[in-house]
């Protein structure tokens, strides 16, 4: 899933390549991806791209107003398997709905010219697209907590105090802090040497300091590595910087212990027992392991 650093890099890429270009045509290949109907996507052709921005893990492409109509924002949440792909050229024939990973295509300058595609792999289609006058009209954006990179040390205390949830749950809750997903939460907790199962409100001052420094350090480093990369290279760049996430069974690069995994529902997280849990493996409550 694209998280704060990748979405920030995609916004940067669009600011460098799409700004000042007019929309020639928009192809909607999946009606289910579009979550708004007014204004319609037919309102975009003729408008000029003015910018791109990030709200947590949401990406917003901004378009200029025109006489009698305000500015518009094409907002997307890429979900688990979505992506934005920039193209120098594209087919001029409109895509057939429901065929392949393409969800939406924006032609810039001219039909068949440069632009970007929103795509989604797999069969579970969760990518969401909204066309709105204000990004805050998108329900998911309206519910976001403070952005992870803008969170202050005092702000972190306010989030932790009185919260009895597990640390892993808290830092991935977008209504609590925006932008952190499964992968970077694993990396942040490993860097801070904190158990994913630690109770948020019980962290002492030194642990809170470590969490704050790790949160900013891991995300800022990932943004630095990601911004400037082409959209096609971002996934590989993300994987290259991970120390524990998606590295089950491999040695921890800090202590050499074996990276472990806990699975739940459709997801899993990784951690190092030596670095994070005093050497004790965490319970893995996968239903497939239950003996009835």
What is the domain total for the residues? 2
Distance between the first and last residues' Cα:
34 Å
Q: CATH architecture of the largest domain, please?
A: Orthogonal Bundle
Mean pLDDT value: 93
Proportion of residues in extended strands:
15-25%
- Unreliable runs: 287-292
Q: How many helices in DSSP terms?
A: 8
According to CATH, the fold-level topology of the largest domain is Helicase, Ruva Protein, domain 3
Oligomer: single chain
The beta-strand count equals 10
3D architecture notes:
With 292 residues, this protein is of the alpha+beta class. It folds into two domains: 4-142, N-terminal domain of MutM-like DNA repair proteins (Alpha-Beta Barrel); 148-289, Helicase, Ruva Protein, domain 3. It contains eight helices and ten strands. It has helices spanning 4-17, 139-142, 153-160, 167-171, 182-192, 205-226, 234-240, 273-276, and strands at residues 23-28, 49-55, 58-63, 72-77, 82-87, 102-108, 115-120, 128-132, 260-264, 267-271. The strands form three sheets. It has a four-stranded antiparallel β-sheet with strand order 1-6-7-5, with no helix packed on it. Strands 2-3-4-8 form a four-stranded antiparallel β-sheet, with helices on one face. The chain has a two-stranded antiparallel sheet with strand order 9-10. A hairpin with a 2-residue loop joins strand 9 and strand 10. Helix 1 packs parallel to helix 6 (205-226) and helix 5 (182-192) packs across helix 6 (205-226). The longest helix is centred in the last third of the chain and has 22 residues, at 205-226. The protein is elongated and about 60 Å long. The two termini are 34 Å apart. Mean pLDDT is 93; it is low at 287-292. One of its GO terms (molecular function) is class I DNA-(apurinic or apyrimidinic site) endonuclease activity. Residues 243-277 form the FPG-type domain.
């Amino acid at each position: 899933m694209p998280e704060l650093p990748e979405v920030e890099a995609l916004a940067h890429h669009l600011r460098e390549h799409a700004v000042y270009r007019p929309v020639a045509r928009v192809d909607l290949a999946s009606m289910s991806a579009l979550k708004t109907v007014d204004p319609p996507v037919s309102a975009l052709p003729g408008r000029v791209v003015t910018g791109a921005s990030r709200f947590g893990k949401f990406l917003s492409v901004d378009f200029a107003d025109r006489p009698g109509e305000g500015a518009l924002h094409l907002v997307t949440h890429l979900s688990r398997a979505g992506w934005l792909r920039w193209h120098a050229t594209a087919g001029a024939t409109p895509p057939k709905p429901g065929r392949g990973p393409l969800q939406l295509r924006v032609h810039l300058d001219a039909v068949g010219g440069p632009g970007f595609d929103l795509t989604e792999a797999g069969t579970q289609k969760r990518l969401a697209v909204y066309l709105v006058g204000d990004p805050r009209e998108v329900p998911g954006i309206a519910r976001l907590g403070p952005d992870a990179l803008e969170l202050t040390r005092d702000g972190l205390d306010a989030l932790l105090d009185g919260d009895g949830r597990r640390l892993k749950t808290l830092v991935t809750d977008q209504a609590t802090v925006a932008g952190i997903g499964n992968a970077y939460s694993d990396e942040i907790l490993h860097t801070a040497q904190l158990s994913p199962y630690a109770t948020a409100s019980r962290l002492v001052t030194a642990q809170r300091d470590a969490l704050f420094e790790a949160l900013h350090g891991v995300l800022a480093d990932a943004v630095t590595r990601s911004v400037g990369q082409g959209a096609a290279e971002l996934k590989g760049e993300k994987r290259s910087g991970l120390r524990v996430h998606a590295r089950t069974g491999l040695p921890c690069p800090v202590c050499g212990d074996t990276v472990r995994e806990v699975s739940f529902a459709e997801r899993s997280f990784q951690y190092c027992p030596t670095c994070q849990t005093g050497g004790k493996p965490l319970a893995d409550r996968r239903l497939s392991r239950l003996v009835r």
